[in-house]
Each structure stands twice: as structure tokens, then as C-alpha cells.
Specification:
Layout (H helix, E strand, L loop, with lengths): L8 E6 L5 E6 L48 E4 L2 E7 L4 H10 L3 E2 L5 H13 L8 E2 L2 E2 L8 E2 L22 E5 L8 E5 L4 E7 L2 E6 L6 E4 L6 H10 L4 E5 L2 E5 L6 E2 L21 E6 L10 H6 L6 E5 L8 E5 L7 E2 H4 L5 E4 L9 H4 L7 E2 L9 E17 L9 E2 L1 E7 L5 E3 L6 E2 L8 E18 L4 E2 L3 E10 L9 E6 L11 E4 L5 H10 L4 E5 L2 E5 L7 E2 L7 E2 L2 E5 L5 E6 L14 E3 L9 E6 L3 E2 L10 E3 L13 E2 L12 E6 L7 E6 L3 E2 L6 E5 L15 E2 L12 E3 L9 E6 L3 E2 L6 E5 L15 E2 L2 E5 L2 E5 L9 E3 L2 E3 L1
Parallel strand pairs: 6-11
Antiparallel strand pairs: 1-2, 3-4, 4-11, 5-11, 6-9, 7-8, 9-10, 12-16, 12-17, 13-15, 14-15, 14-17, 18-19, 20-30, 21-23, 22-30, 23-28, 23-30, 24-29, 25-26, 25-27, 25-28, 31-35, 31-38, 32-34, 33-34, 33-38, 36-37, 39-40, 40-42, 41-43, 44-45, 45-47, 46-48, 49-50, 50-52, 51-53, 54-55, 56-57
GO molecular function: signaling receptor activity
Subcellular location: Endomembrane system; Secreted
Membrane topology: Peripheral membrane protein
């Protein structure tokens, strides 16, 4: 294609943010913006804002503004130029002609442009005689239309009754009487096509070797995704090359022929994504429309995680949000781990049913023969995964459209024992062959094997599908991390993310989690004291965590949302509850992970009830619940009677349980053999008392009085405590202190007071007569009578 030489001037471009960016504009409409976007309002580029001073004129017809058009293009208006293509029979032939000319099929983005296009068509008698093909396209055949120029499509101006539900039809500008207005409609014929090029589309260049941001995907790349991704990275240029998006600060060098950049995008073939080692380059500031939500972006093909600018209403302030974040444990497993995934199915003749072909947006899908009355497809992973969702598409065949409307799900840990998800409930599948339908499971499951059973009766034409299983590896899942992020809420009451209000006076995240768990929701969110619940939280994306800066009512160290923001936590668990408590027993472990085993041991003094099996004492965590715990341990009792002990009292502490103590206390002035006054008997873990008998308490006695006292006698032989014994010296003897009497008492502890003492000191005269002897006391008078013969002698 021949182009005019560029006319270089200094141009003011009004960016999406309403901030003026000064760049260098050429007659081909390129501009090197020097200012990155800071969003405030979203306004279209006006004719006064995009000018070069060189007008594109025609002999007569629609009035052009001062937009400079390349050779072969005309009707310049607001930075865009137009041309007609005639005589093609197929949409893609028209598309190719536009792309090879350095443009794309026209898309009307505003009322002003609609009026201008209406004038263009009316002026051209050939074009005005039939419907004119435009650049609206439904890549998923689900009535989610996109723009061929890579802009976010907001202005469609559908004719009455459109868009229709019919598939595989063209989108055209409808011919009305005298072309007084231009409406878009779906139809099967078009007599011409209107092409457009603009300052936003900067042309074909050598693929940049350096970049400031990059994202790639072999099946999901498209121009809109790249433009919005680079906008979210606050960079002025987006360069898309096949399945790569490169965001750069300056316009790439090495201009190439438009024909070299005519490769259709993997996700949206109506948009063009450069080619091998070449890239289509877009000036991002030119594209002023903002999506109202992440969901709206996704509906037009922005399906990769990243930061994007959105605006809920046209002209309102924009905000940068994180869209398409991988929800907790929502990784596309078949795509991510394709090399370790095995696909098996009931139709062994279909060689396309492989991990490389079955995943979403893949080249074909899995086909089940009509004679296969009970079709199924099995996904086998290399290890245990947490499964959180299943997504399906029909087969990738627009000419032979097939899909599955309903299906059931089964899962297994070992490939032998299978469990029906929700008792075989039919999950909602697809309503056309290309739109993706995701079923987020109401509760996550653990599985290494997943089977999908299409309902043969609900298949369209035949049972065919593409499939994805969402989840994450169980071995690397962080069970303790429940916080999801700072989720953006809309101000529109009819479209709120958090759909269930659980409480307006919730003080702590843990309280809100409990409320939403009880209500059956997957996520719990707090905005101040307002606790709300939801199952899907990505509609408007995530904000940076610092936007959720409201202090929680019940804990100043925690944060509970912000203005139009919710701090969100997941409620679901992928492990068992706390290890159950068993009465009077200890647990061997506190692990709650899947397949964890916990064995219980009775505390000392307790034992299992009769009949408790050994296997019952160990429980196993089966994903989210424990097997039945054993019964409580029972106290061991000493059932035999306690022994008796004479002359003693008995007191028992602890009844008859293990550890109970029976204390025997001797009566006063009694003691046990050996001298103690108390004895104890304990209830042992064997259920027996520690002693079968207890000896009697014996009376306490003082030692016996010596039987060999010298010169002394006692008046009693009593030995009981308190007894008094009087010692009396005889034979004129005395105790050491001169006394002749002494009394000793038997004390409480069985000892006499004082020491036993003989009477050893004699006072007086010794006499001996007639074989008798003795002593006379001192002072004793003795009269001797002498007898001699018959006469006494005195």
C-alpha cells in the first residue's frame, strides 16, 4: 500500500484521563505520547483535540475535519479515516482487505461518529444500496460482541430486535430509508464493508526487543486485552505480536508493511495481532472507553490477570483494579499441568481427546460417538488436588456446533472408589458451542481423578466438550491463609458483589466468617461492622490492600474494608475441623490435614469402656471431616471393700476412683506396729486397693519396770500412758539425791519421764543375827538383852 509522506506537526492529544499529552503526529496518525495515564474522567477524543492542520478533503460529500488521512483513505474525522471495500463474498475476505490496507473493519464508538458514518454511506451510492459490513464480532458466539479495532465496545446502537440469537451471521449497518440513521443488526448478507484506520492504530513495526511489561497466552491473546493490560501498567504503547503483549514507553522502530501484521488474534480473529517477529502497535490514550467492571472486560476477551482501569459509568472517575485474579485455589489445572495430566474417556476412537486439545479455547475438544450412550471423560492428575470448579465449552467447530447442556460430576482419590458430587446433581453446561460456563463448586473437593458425565439427552447435535478443572495442589495449599484481598463493591444496589447481608454489627473477621459459613457462602466480607457474604467476588476486581484501612470494631490491629471496599476472607476449609475431644483422653496429634490419623490414649486412672476395639481408638481425616471418634474414657474404680483396722478411724478422699486415698488414723494412745499413727491405702490403676489388709492399732505402753531394782520397790506395774509408778527405797537406802521415794509418769509417746534409778546409798548400822542381816537406821536405838543360863542380862 502506498502512503503519503507524513506531515509533522506538534499535536495536543486529550487522553482518557483528560490530561493533555504532547506528542509528534504524522499524517499516518501516529503519536508518541509523553504522558502516562492518570484517570479522572473518560471523554472521547474531539475534533479540536486531534488535528494536524492538513485537512483530508473530497470533491463533495461528508465534511471532514482537519484529520490527515493516508493515501487511499478519506472522510477524516476525529483522528479516523475511512474507505469502502466492495465485491467480496465472505466476511473474512472483507476483513483481510481492510487489514492489508492498514486498517480494520469500522466500529462506531460514539454518536458523533455514527452521524459521520451515516453521511459517508449516504454519500456513496454503491454502498448505500445494500447493508454495509462493520467490525463487530462475537468470538464466543454468545452475543458478547467485540470491536475489530481493539477498543472496548460500549456503543452498539442495535436495531430493533437485535442482537438476534442466530449464530454465524454478519454484523452490518442496516440500510434504512434514505439512510437517515445507521443502526447495527445481524444479517447474512452485506454488499460492502467500511474500513477504518485511526491515530490509535499506529501501524506494523518490528517486534520490540525490550519492554516495560509483558503478558502472553497462546489462546487468549487479543488486541483489546493488550491495550487494556498496558493501560493498567500506565504505559503509552501496546505492541501485540501473535500471542504476546508488550507494553513500552516509546513507539517501536522498524516500520513494516501492513500485510506483515495481518495475523488474526488467537482469541478474537476479527482483531489482528501482528505476525512473526512483527507487532501491531496501539497508542493507548486514543482509546477512551472504559469498561464498567472486570466482568464486562472479560466478556470482550480480557481474561488474563492484571491491573486494569474501569469506570462504572461513562464520564465517571476511573479506578485501577486487579481483574481476573486467581481466586483462592482456582488455577486452571489442565492447562497449567498439561504435561502431567492424562485424559481418558468412554470413546476410545477419538484421538483428539487429550490434555492438549480438551482445555478451554483449545483447537478441538472431546467428541463422543452417538452409540456411546453413557459418555464420560476422566481427568487424571499426578497427585491430590483441591478441586473448586469445572468449566466447559462445546467443541471448537463453528460449522458443526456441538455442546453439552448438563453433566454430572464424580471424583476419586484412588481411581477405584468414586463419589458423586452432590449426589449426582446435574450441573448446568453450555447453551452454545463456544461460550465458557463455569460451575464453582458449593464446597471444594479433594481428588486425584475427576470424571465428567455428559447427559446424553441434553447434548446439542452430539456430546462434545472442551473442559477445564480449577483448583490447586493440596500439598502446597496454605491452610492458615484465609484472607483473600480488598474487594471492590459497586455503588449500584442492583449489582452488588456481596449479595447477602449477614450482620450490621459484626466486630471481628472471625465472627463474619462464622456467619457466612453458616449461611452457606464461600466468602465473607467486612466493611466496617457490616458483614456480607458472596460466592463470586471478582466482578469489579480487587484494590490494593491499603484501600481497606478501616479499623475493625473488635480489634484495632485488624482492618475491615474501606469506602466501597470489603476485606474478604474465604470461609471454606480443605481440612478437617479441630481434632475432636474425647473425654478423659489425650490425642497423639493436632494435624487436621487430609489422611491425618490421630490416636487417643486414656488419662491415668481412666480406661476404655468394655468392648472398645483397638481400631476405634484411632480416627482419620477424610478431607473435611473425621471418622467417628471413640467413646469417652471411663474412670477406673476400686470395687473391692477397703480393709478394716482395729483401734483406728478411716477417712477416704476421692471415693473409689484411681488415685483415691484411704487414711487410717489410730485412736489416742494407740499406734501401728512400727510406731506410726497413720497408714494410707490407694486405689491403683489396676482397680485394686494398694493393701489387702491393715494391721490393728496397738495401745501405747511404756517399757516394763525393771524386775531387778536394788533396794527399791514399786507400787504398780501399770505401763499405760498416764500411769504413775512410785519407787520406794528399802534397806535404809536412798536415791542419789538422798530421797527415798520417787514417782515416774508414762508419757504419751510411750516413755517414762526421768530415768530409772536404784536406791544405792545405805545409812545406819549393819546387823546380822540368827542368819538374818539388815540395817538400823541412823538414830535407831537398840536394846540388847543378854541371857546367860536362867538369867537375863540387860
Amino acid at each position: 500500500m502506498t502512503t503519503t509522506q507524513p506531515v509533522q506537526t506538534t499535536t495536543a492529544l486529550t487522553t482518557t484521563a483528560g490530561v493533555t499529552a504532547v506528542g509528534t503526529t504524522t499524517s499516518a496518525g501516529s503519536a508518541a505520547a509523553t504522558t502516562s495515564e492518570v484517570t479522572t474522567t473518560n471523554q472521547p477524543v474531539t475534533s479540536a483535540a486531534v488535528t494536524t492542520g492538513v485537512a483530508a478533503t473530497t470533491a463533495s460529500g461528508p465534511t471532514s475535519d482537519s484529520t490527515v488521512c493516508p493515501a487511499g483513505w478519506s472522510y477524516g474525522f476525529h483522528g479516523s479515516c475511512y474507505k469502502f471495500i466492495f465485491g467480496e463474498s465472505h466476511t473474512w475476505d472483507y476483513w483481510r482487505q481492510c487489514v492489508d490496507s492498514g486498517g480494520y473493519l469500522n466500529v462506531i464508538n460514539a454518536q458523533e461518529e455514527k452521524d459521520h458514518v451515516n453521511d459517508i454511506i449516504t454519500f456513496n451510492s454503491t454502498a448505500s444500496s445494500a447493508n454495509v459490513l462493520c467490525g463487530l464480532f462475537d468470538p464466543s458466539y454468545s452475543l458478547d460482541f467485540t470491536a475489530a479495532d481493539g477498543s472496548f465496545l460500549k456503543y452498539t446502537n442495535w436495531d430493533s430486535g437485535n442482537p438476534k440469537t442466530a449464530l454465524k451471521v454478519k454484523v452490518v449497518y442496516k440500510r434504512l430509508a434514505n439512510w437517515t440513521q445507521v443502526n447495527t443488526q445481524l444479517t447474512s448478507n452485506a454488499g460492502s464493508a467500511l474500513c477504518e484506520t485511526s491515530y490509535g492504530f499506529d501501524g506494523c513495526y518490528t517486534k520490540p526487543s525490550s519492554y516495560q511489561a509483558k503478558v502472553l497466552h497462546p489462546r487468549l491473546m487479543n488486541s483489546l486485552l493488550c491495550i487494556e493490560y498496558c493501560r493498567g501498567n500506565d504505559l503509552p504503547y501496546a505492541a501485540v505480536s501473535n500471542d504476546e503483549c508488550l507494553c513500552v514507553e516509546t513507539k517501536p522502530t522498524g516500520s513494516q508493511s501492513s500485510i506483515a501484521c495481518s495475523m488474526g488474534c488467537p482469541y478474537n480473529p476479527m482483531q489482528h495481532c501482528g505476525g512473526t517477529n512483527v507487532a501491531n502497535v496501539y497508542l493507548i490514550g486514543y482509546y477512551y472507553h472504559r469498561a464498567p467492571s472486570c466482568v464486562a472486560l472479560a466478556s470482550q476477551g480480557v481474561l488474563l490477570e492484571g491491573y486494569y482501569w474501569i469506570s462504572e459509568t461513562e464520564g465517571a472517575a476511573s479506578r485501577k483494579v486487579q481483574c481476573n485474579p486467581t481466586a483462592p485455589c482456582h488455577t486452571p489445572l489442565i492447562h497449567t499441568y498439561a504435561s502431567t495430566v492424562t485424559i481418558t474417556h468412554s470413546n476410545s476412537t477419538d484421538n483428539n481427546c487429550t490434555a492438549e486439545n480438551i482445555y478451554l479455547y483449545g483447537p478441538s475438544g472431546c467428541y463422543f460417538a452417538n452409540e456411546d450412550t453413557e459418555p464420560w471423560v476422566q481427568v487424571s492428575f499426578d497427585q491430590l488436588y483441591i478441586i473448586t470448579g469445572v468449566a466447559t465449552q462445546g467443541s471448537n467447530d463453528p460449522d458443526n456446533q456441538q455442546w453439552v447442556r448438563n453433566y454430572a460430576l464424580e471424583y476419586s482419590e484412588n481411581g477405584v472408589n468414586w463419589t458423586q458430587y452432590e449426589n449426582g446433581t446435574q450441573l448446568t453446561g453450555n447453551s452454545n458451542f463456544n461460550a465458557v460456563v463455569l460451575n464453582t463448586l458449593t464446597y471444594p473437593i479433594l481428588a486425584q481423578y475427576v470424571r465428567v458425565y455428559p447427559s446424553r439427552a441434553t447434548c446439542e447435535n452430539n456430546c462434545s466438550l472442551r473442559l477445564e478443572v480449577n483448583g490447586c495442589k493440596y500439598s502446597s495449599f496454605d491452610h492458615s491463609l484465609q484472607y483473600v484481598g480488598c474487594v471492590i463493591e459497586t455503588t449500584d444496589p442492583s449489582g452488588q458483589v456481596m449479595v447477602h447481608s449477614a450482620s450490621t454489627s459484626c466486630q471481628l473477621p472471625s465472627d463474619c466468617i462464622d456467619l457466612c459459613t453458616a449461611a452457606g457462602f464461600l466468602y465473607a466480607g467486612l466493611q466496617g461492622a457490616n458483614c456480607s457474604c458472596a460466592n463470586e467476588i471478582r466482578t469489579y476486581g480487587y484494590a490494593a490492600s491499603y484501600h481497606c484501612d478501616t479499623v475493625c470494631t473488635g480489634d484495632p490491629k485488624q482492618r475491615c474494608g474501606g469506602e466501597n471496599r470489603y476485606s474478604v476472607w474465604r470461609t471454606w476449609e480443605v481440612r478437617c475441623p479441630q481434632v475432636p475431644s474425647v473425654g478423659n483422653a489425650t490425642a497423639s496429634s493436632t494435624s487436621r490435614n487430609h489422611n491425618s490419623q490421630v490416636t487417643y490414649f486414656c488419662l491415668p486412672g481412666y480406661d476404655w469402656p468394655n468392648g472398645t476395639l483397638e481400631a476405634e481408638k484411632t480416627i482419620t481425616c477424610t478431607f473435611n471431616n473425621w471418622t467417628a471418634p471413640p467413646p469417652d474414657c471411663e474412670a477406673i474404680h476400686c470395687t473391692s471393700a477397703l480393709p478394716t483396722a482395729a483401734n483406728a478411724t478411716l477417712s477416704v478422699v476421692g471415693g473409689d476412683k484411681v488415685g483415691a486415698v484411704a487414711t487410717y488414723t489410730c485412736l489416742q494412745h494407740y499406734r501401728f506396729p512400727g510406731g506410726s499413727t497413720t497408714k494410707t491405702v490407694s486405689c491403683l490403676t489396676t482397680g485394686q486397693w494398694s493393701a489387702a489388709s491393715v494391721s490393728a492399732c496397738e495401745m501405747i505402753l511404756c517399757p516394763a519396770i525393771s524386775s531387778s531394782l536394788i533396794n527399791a520397790v514399786v507400787n504398780s506395774t501399770d505401763r499405760q500412758v498416764g500411769s504413775a509408778v512410785e519407787y520406794q527405797c528399802t534397806n535404809n537406802a536412798t536415791f542419789g539425791d538422798g530421797g527415798t521415794k520417787r514417782v515416774r509418769l508414762c508419757l504419751d509417746w510411750g516413755q517414762w519421764d526421768g530415768a530409772e534409778e536404784d536406791c544405792g546409798k545405805i545409812f545406819g548400822c549393819h546387823f546380822e543375827t540368827g542368819g538374818h542381816f539388815g540395817y538400823f537406821e541412823k538414830g535407831f536405838h537398840v536394846q540388847f538383852l543378854l541371857s546367860h543360863s536362867d538369867k537375863d542380862i540387860v
